[in-house]
Design goal:
This protein has three helices and six strands. The protein is an alpha+beta fold.
Length: about 130
């Protein structure tokens, strides 16, 4: 399993397994959906860089989850972004393919007005290693 597949699958599982997100959100998607009704979550493509040691493969991953909501109110999108932060903070360290998370840091959460809706962008830095 590639590091990208491992982190994406773990994030999807963490976001769909959370009761706080499963009810108010209409889905978790890897690409902008054609017909989904907001609010929904969009997993942006992760950015990976090498973070290997002498004896282990490693990656530093920058992840973004977009919380897309309809309307102009920012209250609900902020609450959903906080739930996303909590779900990713609780994500287990063990990932598929022998990968494990060694650190994760919330970088920023930002709310952007799109005119027809509001989007919160939740960005994390995850460092992961593959066991020998």
């Amino acid at each position: 399993m590639s590091p990208q597949e491992a982190i994406t699958a773990a994030m999807r599982t963490a976001l769909t397994a959370t009761g706080a997100l499963s009810t108010p959100v209409n889905g978790v998607f890897d690409a902008p959906p054609q017909r989904a009704v907001r609010p929904y979550l969009l997993l942006d493509e992760p950015m990976l860089t090498d973070w290997s040691t002498k004896d282990q493969d490693g990656r530093e991953v920058r992840t973004s989850v977009l919380v897309r909501d309809a309307g102009a109110s920012r209250q609900r999108v902020r609450a959903l972004a906080a739930d996303v932060e909590a779900a990713l903070a609780a994500m287990p360290s063990a990932l598929g393919g022998g990968w494990r998370i060694v650190s994760r840091v919330l970088l920023r959460t930002r709310v952007v007005d799109e005119g027809s809706g509001v989007t919160a962008v939740v960005e994390h830095r995850v460092r992961m290693l593959r066991g020998a």
